[in-house]
Design a protein that fits this description.
- By secondary structure, the protein is mainly beta.
- The protein has helices at 2-18, 48-51, and strands spanning 80-81, 85-88, 93-97, 106-110, 123-127, 133-137, 143-147, 150-154, 165-169, 175-179, 184-187, 196-197, 200-203, 217-220.
- It has a single domain, classed as Trefoil (Acidic Fibroblast Growth Factor, subunit A) (Trefoil), CATH 2.80.10.
- Strand 3 and strand 4 form a beta hairpin.
- The N and C termini lie far apart (81 Å).
Length: 232
């Protein structure tokens, strides 16, 4: 009996460790972007050769491809696609790409600091009839993907559970964004002096516990607008 318990514990530990493998070679946690004046998007490392090993099915066959594979958007499937939008933390950091090549980390930046990022900070949410969602970046047509202790953007595949997300509603109408594959939630710690927000995957906060770092607000896409009123 004890031997069986120890075996189960070992398998759970091994499974947990193996799920955190750094197959892309980018580290298990986000590495801070370059600090510089005049923030701008970069290409980042070319990880295309490694991406084929990121997503595999139960038979260990590669399923990650550069082709967009999303839910069928029709009445029969009862799936839906949102208008373009942004996803913001309570402290004002919106989810955005910084390094544009697929497989690189997703970050948070304020709307002001990321003003030159354009549609890299804009997303569409594709939701299937079961309530599972894929979060697709408008600029690169890549999707938000759970990876180790954070999230990357890579080729979209609706069969990859690490690209499927659930939106859990808070009482204040903010949402908790939970990954279907890992059962963990998007989290961003309070920002200090850095211009960027770290985006992590952590255990989901339960009801009654402090949860502001896992709250996200869906906002309209940030667009340039003409001055409506001026006193000059």
């Amino acid at each position: 009996m004890i031997r069986n318990i120890l075996l189960v514990a070992f398998l759970v530990f091994f499974s947990s460790c193996s799920s955190k493998k750094d197959v892309l070679g980018i580290g298990k946690s986000p590495n801070p972007p370059t600090k510089s004046k005049g923030l701008k998007l970069v290409s980042g490392p070319n990880l295309s050769a490694k991406l084929q090993h990121l997503n595999t099915d139960n038979k260990a066959s590669d399923t990650s491809t550069p082709n967009l594979l999303l839910f069928a958007n029709d009445a029969a499937s009862k799936s839906s696609t949102s208008d373009p939008l942004s996803i913001m933390s309570p402290e004002g950091g919106v989810l955005t790409l910084w390094a544009l090549n697929p497989g690189n980390w997703v970050w948070g930046y304020s709307l002001n600091d990321s003003i030159d990022f354009g549609s890299a900070r804009i997303w569409r949410i594709h939701t299937d009839s079961n309530g599972n969602s894929i979060i697709e970046n408008v600029k690169k047509k890549t999707c938000l993907t759970a990876y180790a202790n954070g999230v990357v953007h890579t080729y979209c595949d609706s069969k990859n559970t690490k690209q499927l997300w659930k939106f859990n509603l808070f009482d204040n109408q903010a949402v908790q964004i939970q990954n279907v594959g890992t059962q963990q939630c998007l989290q961003t710690p309070s920002k200090a002096s850095d211009p960027y927000f770290f985006i992590y995957l952590t255990d989901c906060v339960k009801s009654g516990k402090k949860n502001s770092d896992q709250q996200w607000i869906i906002i309209a896409e940030p667009l340039d607008a003409d001055i409506v009123f001026s006193v000059n």
